């Protein structure tokens, strides 16, 4: 709503004429609802829908692993805009799968609609999604040639004012939203498209139409003029919004009338976690200089950094037998025999995504899949007595056990203990199948079947603040529960309280502790995880 003033004067012929001069011309002043008192009668009418809307937008859809801001998206590649393109690209890949378009290169266009949008580390809500993608656009894709895609990018690069070559830019607000002769306003942020799926540099020392340099595919291959490319964009842009070339007349190859914001929300709910490492690629740059493509130097060996593990093969030595880095700082670490070869190795969890390796090393995971929800508690065990450990998740006092390393519906489901209990998994009776035990303060309740009901064994051990670990510490085929206090391990080889059978100081106070059979000898021994 605006208050608009239009000055009108009568001509000598008696006709009304709008006055439009430098000193006198039409004006418009926005009327902001926040500047006016609320009307109780109107509030009463809309309250039910207003409350439902607030409840909807407050829903948490995913966890962000770090804060992602759009504040600088108009002049540098940012993860939060790449998130939009990741969602758009995934949807079109899904639609193209199994069709004659499956092998088309997919390039996604996304605009920095809001410089104030942000995904803060932790909870991401529906409101956060709406603040990032503020329009009710639907997703489309058209087929362009490589030459047409370059034209599209050149048109987008109009967004920047031209500067002298090699100008050092200190205030991007003076460079973006370029105002051209004959226009009444500068190019708005929503009219500036950022592309994912190709690499390019924008040289704003050059005239409009000649600014795009080093346009290549991600593998470095130049984009050819006759290449066939799928450009993913919104319906506003495809229908001519902001005047981009070629897209109005280009063949439409995807149009399922799906709202982009809804796709973003659905993607977040399904993934459970928004991690820039999964989608953020710095594929474009802008400056007042020409980029020079030079061969990349041979990488130098990197020092052992990040999530570093120190593992020992016995209960007598304070030194480690294995050292390596795996995963990232902040990952949840899991220990298990994933391939059933008798050796425990590591896995990490990010949200509801799991990355498991079959050897004690860094590098790519051997098993990748999603299971459960981001907030579930995860347990590792061999639930059916076959070779290899798998996963379970716990929600409240409900356990969902899976007998394969995959997502989907659980194979076993049951309730046990209380929501506030600490849960552990182990083969308590030596039958080769793992079950659940819970700890309540210093009392352990052990059950030998995957079921609810009364515990088979109950005993007290240790102090309330101790860390409890489950494992076979003497190689007899039966798991028991031991404790860690600081960096002191208290090993208990039976289900009883009292004095520990073995003690060992290992690692440093503050290390994350674990146990596993690292050398396949049937005995679980200590390990620590340290971020360095």
From TrEMBL:
InterPro entries: 5'-Nucleotdase_C, 5'-Nucleotdase_C_sf, 5_nucleotidase/apyrase, Integrin_alpha_N. Keywords: Hydrolase, Nucleotide-binding. Residues 60-247 form the 5'-Nucleotidase C-terminal domain. Belongs to the 5'-nucleotidase family. This is 5'-nucleotidase C-terminal domain-containing protein.
